[in-house]
Write a structure and sequence with these properties.
Blueprint lengths: L22 H5 L17 H20 L17
InterPro entries: AB_hydrolase_fold
Amino acid sequence: NAGICPQLTKEQGGGICAHTFEIPLVFGTESDYRSANPINYTWDKQTRIYSNKIISHWISMGTTGEPLKPWLRYDPSKSNY
């Protein structure tokens, strides 16, 4: 699901999503997983908005210990996590 986890294009690695792919989104840096340079491509508007939302959630958790939206209580009988 590209809305949950950014996907690589076929040219970048076959449409997979793996550990650490979220790092550029968390820090708002336009780079890919193989990048030695901090900027080697640009994000589209939707990706920038998504990154800004992730950053907002991290800031909220770091400063208040609370997410921006209340989290549902964990229930192992439901598949909401």
